[in-house]
Amino acid sequence: MILLVLAILTVCPPQYKSLNLSKYLETLVCNMHGSLLFLLLGVLSAANAVIFKDCGSTVKNLNIKIGGCPDAVSVCRFPSGQNASIEATFTPRSSFKNATIKLAASVGVIDIDFPMKFPEACGHWGLKCPGKAGLPQTLRGEVSVESSYPKIKIEVTLQLFDDKGETLICKSFPAEIK
């Protein structure tokens, strides 16, 4: 809220009004100043957003939302002993009969697969199978963050494979188990 008030106050600072500029020039200067401010705020907010790194996704229009991972954080934080929700909307480029999901954590050079109770994405994760090329799909589910997991920073990789073993989705992101 304070940031919003400061932004409003700085859009057209009083020093521009005291220059006795013509109304047109004053408006132009104030609008440019405001545009620069909002551009800067946009860059700063993007710098703090979670960075999803692509590792071979082949689908179109991929949008991923992870519970515990709001837009304004640089690291997803997953509380120990709770569930983390995953939602991915996408449009496959090719048809598939079935799909499986895989989650892995990287700690340094060590990759550890998260145990998946139901890796079948059709049904358990909400995919409509068989999937048709060009028709939007939504993958949605939860993963248990066991209290036995160590409280460390990790790199999580989310993968979705079709029935031929081809990668549909592959995204990684920084996370921390707390």
TrEMBL record:
UniProt record, GO biological process: sterol transport
Record-level GO cellular component terms: extracellular region
Signal peptide residues on this chain, from the entry's feature table: 1-18
Domain of life: Eukaryota
Domain MD-2-related lipid-recognition: 52-175
GO MF terms, alphabetically ordered: sterol binding
Presence of the UniProt keyword Secreted in the record: yes
Main location as per UniProt: secreted
Keyword Amino-acid biosynthesis applies: no
Keyword terms: Secreted, Signal
Localisation: Secreted
Family: Belongs to the NPC2 family.
Protein name, UniProt field: Phosphatidylglycerol/phosphatidylinositol transfer protein
